[in-house]
Amino acid sequence: LLFPVSNLCGKCRPRDTDLLQPSLNFLYWSLHQTTPCSQQRAVAVLLSNVSLLELLQKVLECTWLQSPPSEAAYLSPEDALLCSGWLLVASLLLYQHRYNAEIHQTISLDLTEVLNAVIFRKKKPILLLVSIMQFLRAVLQQNFSSSLLVIIGQNTAQGATQPQPSSLQDAALHPLALQQVFSLVVSLQNLLVHKDLLLSQALVACLETLVEYLYVKNQDVALHVASQPWHRFLLFTLLNGGQKSFLQPEVLRLMTLFLRYQSSNIISQKEISQILQEASEANLAELPEATSRALHLFLCQV
User: Fold this and answer.
1) Residue 10: what pLDDT?
2) Are residues 27 and 46 in contact, defined by beta-carbon separation less than 8 angstroms?
3) How far is CA 200 from each of CA 178, 196, 250, rounded to the nearest angstrom?
4) How far apart (Å, rounded) are the C-alpha atoms in residues 134 and 140?
5) Judging by beta carbons within 10 Å of its beta carbon (0-12, 13-18, 19+), is residue 1 exposed, middle or buried?
6) N or C: which end of the chain has fewer CB within 10 A?
7) pLDDT per residue over 199-234, tens digit each?
8) How far apart are CA 128 and CA 139, in angstroms?
């Protein structure tokens, strides 16, 4: 089925939402819900379809070309298609790297536009933000080196007017700029305050990957980002005062992140003791899977 469905997608236009939406979803789940052997073949089939990849690029570009979203709470057909497009491309990036699959057509994206879609979110639906962050996490994990993706619009402007230290840091973080990093971190923090479960999981995962990327590129910048005082206020905001409030997956993962980068001004021995106390009193067998996994990582980090 991958052959006819992917060929059908390649003949569509981005505005053919009724046809593209279920088709892209089918391709996405075909990649994820299959055996590793079949998964490798599925990746090869999709990456060999030049028309499909060209269509996906056009779909993604609609993210910043479409008119400003309305106040409606529901997901419009256009936004739903964008979600499917971002998730599928993120998966293709991941699996192309895993299997070193052959590339027949690249996807070109403006990094500044991608970042601005998160930083200046303009009432974008939560699911669309989650989808874009899945993509952003995939490119960060690969250090922007994927052979499937061509990053355009890399930051070269303003270089002459910035102080020399900032220019050196920008060069180390390339293709990201230091100001883009700070803006992205602030945006992720602000979105975390919404306490939406799906959004929180994507935000924390994106923040983890971003700091890992920064640590490889420039340790000083990574440690500076991880030790921002605002993180401590964010933790207090996430802790709603309820029982076992420390045993929330996103809180545990944030605590683990701050421990990993030794942000002692964010998480103290007192908070660590509180988490250990709550964990000792909890019925571990009844904890949700996400909480158990996050607690395991936290304890390993401690």
Assistant:
1) 94
2) yes
3) 24, 6, 6
4) 10
5) exposed
6) N
7) 999 999 999 999 999 999 999 999 999 999 889 888
8) 17
Give the residue from 149, 137, 248 showing the smallest Cα distance to 192. Answer: 248
Distances, alpha carbon 129 to alpha carbons 13, 35, 195, 198, 215, in Å: 23, 29, 14, 10, 25
Q: Which of 80, 64, 43, 57 is nearest to 9 (CA)?
A: 57
CA-closest candidate to residue 173, choices 143, 200, 193: 143
Q: What is the pTM of this model?
A: 0.90
* In the chain, where the domains are located: 1-154
56 closest CA partner among 24, 31, 98: 24
Query: Would you state the structure tokens that stand for residue 184, as one six-digit string?
Result: 């992205």
- Distance, in Å, from the CA atom of 81 to the CA atom of 59, rounded to the nearest integer, reads 8
Helix (H) or strand (E) holding 107: strand 107-110
